[in-house]
Design a protein that fits this description.
This protein has about 270 residues and is mainly α. It has 3 domains: about 80 residues, no CATH class; about 60 residues, no CATH class; about 50 residues. Helices cover about 70% and strands about 0% of the residues. The chain has 10 helices and no strands. Helix 8 crosses helix 9. The chain starts with a helix and ends with a helix.
């Protein structure tokens, strides 16, 4: 009996050492967490449960996971497999929901397009409000009724059309901003705002392309000037190094006369 007790105590101690450092987590609750550990549990498992799971964690220096995967206990691999399957299901569900949202957005855009540029909009686009019909003539009365109906329909659609046009323009600008992140650069933004103030007939896209071309040309000129300056400095260094004073070569110097030669040799003997 003592042996069994010692074995159980040893297993419990090993489990406690392997468990996350959380004083509020009992052995029973730990078993429950492990048995039901899902992707959501993993995402919610944070620094309070284990300091290694801090939100800003960027652990480095570990062995690759593929070197560990076949060496961990089978139960751990099963838990990892469950988490992987849970992740796959959630990814597929998100993909399905994304497709549904995209379909709804596509249908809404089509509906909005019909309101703005559809057959009904075209019907009310060219109404001759100055036309005069003979109301005592059946055909004239019919034409006047159609004209008044078109005017009423146009006036009813106009607020919705204007609102949809504003929304479409906002979406276009948001997409354009996403495709051209330079718009968030203060250098671009300031130049674009000033350009639109002086030339209000320009669209934001046109102002951006003009600014981009201007800044690109300026930067190109700066780069060319930097290259030219660097080459000039290099040439100056080469010129100075090649035109510097030359050291007197070793050996017997050349003398102007015999007296100089005698004095030099005499000096060499006294050294």
């Amino acid at each position: 009996m003592e042996t069994g007790t010692e074995t159980n105590t040893s297993v419990a101690d090993e489990t406690a050492e392997a468990a996350p450092h959380n004083e509020n987590l009992t052995e029973d609750s730990l078993d429950e967490v492990i048995d039901n550990f899902t992707l959501d549990d993993l995402m919610a498992y944070g620094e309070e449960q284990d300091p290694l799971f801090a939100d800003e964690a960027q652990h480095k220096g570990m062995k690759p996971l593929n070197e560990w995967i076949h060496n961990v206990p089978e139960d751990v691999r099963k838990h990892l497999a469950n988490i992987r399957a849970d992740y796959t299901r959630k990814t597929q569900e998100l993909s399905r929901m994304r497709k549904e949202v995209e379909e709804a957005q596509r249908a809404m855009r089509q509906q909005n397009e019909n309101i703005i540029n559809g057959s009904t909009a075209k019907l009310t686009a060219n109404i001759d409000e100055t036309a005069e019909y003979d109301l005592f003539d059946p055909e004239g009365m019919k034409a006047e009724i159609q004209r008044q109906a078109q005017i009423m329909l146009r006036d009813m659609l106009k607020p919705a059309q204007e609102e949809l046009q504003v929304q479409q323009r906002k979406l276009q600008l948001e997409q354009f901003k996403a495709e051209n992140p330079e718009l968030t650069d203060p250098e671009y933004r300031t130049e674009i705002v000033n350009l639109l103030k002086t030339r209000p007939e320009l669209s934001m896209e046109d102002a951006f392309y003009i600014t981009k071309a201007k800044i690109g040309s300026t930067k190109l000129q700066q780069e060319r000037q930097e290259i030219a300056d660097r080459r000039a400095r290099q040439r100056e260094v080469v010129r100075k190094s090649s035109s510097g004073s030359r050291s007197q070569p070793k050996g017997t110097p050349k003398f102007k006369n015999a007296l100089e030669a005698y004095k030099w040799h005499k000096a060499q003997q006294t050294k």
